[in-house]
Amino acid sequence: MRVAFVGKGGAGKSSIAGVFARMLARQGARVLALDSDPMPGLAYSLGVPSQDAGIPADAVEEYEDDDGRRRYRLRSGLDPSAAIERYSTVSPDGVRFLQLGKARGVKGENSLSHQAYQLIVDSLSSDDWSVVGDLPGGTRQAFFGWGRFAQTVLVVAEPTPASVLTARRLARLALHSSAPRVLAVANKTRGEADVRYVERGTGLPVAGSVPYDETQRDADRRGVALLDLDADTPLVAAVASLVSSLSAEEALR
Amino acid sequence: MDSAADGVVIADFEAGLGTVIRMGDEPVDVVVLVTEPTVKSLEVARRAADLVHRQQLGRLVVTANRLRDDEDLSRVRAAFPGIEVVIIPDEPAIVAAERRGVAPFDAAPDSPGVRALVALADSLGPACSGRG
Hints:
Helix content of chain A is 38%, strand content 21%. Chain A has nine helices and ten strands. Chain A has an eight-stranded mixed sheet with strand order 5-6-2-7-1-8-9-10, with helices on both faces. In chain A, helix 6 links the parallel strand 9 and strand 10. In chain A, helix 1 (13-26) packs across helix 9 (234-252). In chain B, strands 1-2-3 form a three-stranded parallel sheet, with helices on both faces. Chain B has a single domain (4-129), classed as Rossmann fold. Chain B is built from six helices and three strands. Chain B has helices spanning 18-22, 39-54, 70-79, 92-100, 104-107, 112-129, and strands at residues 30-35, 59-67, 85-89. Classes of the chains: A alpha/beta, B alpha/beta. At the A-B interface, helix 7 of A face helix 2 and helix 4 of B.
């Protein structure tokens, strides 16, 4: 399974993606969690220490292709699995966490780190890894580059006009991307009417409804993963159900 | 706009540091940094505040949104010692306004959060009119 979470900032992508990745791992999948947001986020939801470092520049080497153009590849002796082994962090439930690297100020030269991240993501085999990606909020990154690994794009939307409008724009962009399918996840719902609102507003099928969960807010305040604070919450149950339904669909394909 | 006589410009930037980085050496009168009392939000806000200081972009005001209690306020104050903090309580009226797509200024003008922002706007008036 390869899913990417997108949506408006604050919609709950990282919170859901963290629980999703760990629940998928609990089902026995070998899970790689990808974080291409330049700001901290998914690490907290997964339950790993937040750090800035991404993949070092020397993970890639430059070469000339047959037409004399400059290209990059993982350095000699470093295949994608070895790179994940080396540059990812192991989170609870065995999820591997790989990040692009976090920004603190005016950008330094990080294009080689970004090349390395993209090369690893592009060369992953579906047979080896289930991939759960948490993309930055908004529309800028969603379907360009960092999100192209995804077979399923899950657009997280709150039942508010602003969140749904962003989700609708993301869905439109998805039509022009390589993602084979785009589904909505209604977040912070307080009833069936909210789910229908997200469905109508986004124009997308709703794959799951995640209820408003005060425990998630407590976890955010403490900077801990929801699953480590309290695994018996409505949010966890809803995301577990989403994992199960998407896994079942995948098995039928 | 070249002078305060032309009016006041209020820009709502995208989340994260991208826009702050790209502002380069274009100073503004005031940078209002909005944060929530969560570890993640405070971490991002601290990074933005560092940038504002390093790039000398302007006076910094921290707006702490969705505060539930004194513990939340303490978290924000601890993250930004010595910096002015505007308090926006966690209010059902504002949440309901967001869900309806209505401006909190119209839906809940008397709420403590809206009143705090009005007071902030009043206090910034002289700071803005000083440029030109």
